[in-house]
Amino acid sequence: MDASVLALAFTPDGEFLAGATASMVMIWKVGEYFMPRAKWTRMPHPGWLSPKSTGNADDVEDVHCLCWDANGEKLAYGANSRVS
């Protein structure tokens, strides 16, 4: 990965691992780390700016989180006060 991993979450059954950077979320099958199974890139959008952001590219989001649902079928990603 080109950027620091800011959040990690395993599915409840431990089969998959999601990792988030400031701009992307990737999902790997445990034991198959050479290529992610899925990849989502967050496009720049004013709705994603933190309430404390000034809109500058230098603004840094400092809180990132990932959480799977109880069945391991849906993944939520949040950055500061925004959720996807």
Structure characterization notes:
This protein has one domain. The chain is built from no helices and 7 strands. Strands 1-2-3-4 form a 4-stranded antiparallel β-sheet, with no helix packed on it. The chain has a 3-stranded antiparallel β-sheet with strand order 5-6-7, with no helix packed on it. Strand 5 and strand 6 form a beta hairpin.
What oligomerization state is this entry in? single chain
Approximate strand percentage: 35-45%
Radius of gyration: 13 Å
Major sheet details: 4 strands, antiparallel
Domains (count): 1
Number of helices: 0
**SSE arrangement, N to C:** EEEEEEE
Q: N- to C-terminal separation?
A: 21 Å
Helical content (DSSP H or I, runs of 4+): under 10%
Sequence of strands across the biggest β-sheet: 1-2-3-4
> Can you count the beta strands?
7
Q: Output mean pLDDT.
A: 80
| Helix-and-strand structural type | mainly beta
Low-confidence stretches: none
Backbone shape? globular
What labels would you give this structure?
single chain; 84 residues; mainly beta; three-stranded antiparallel β-sheet; 7 strands; 0% helix
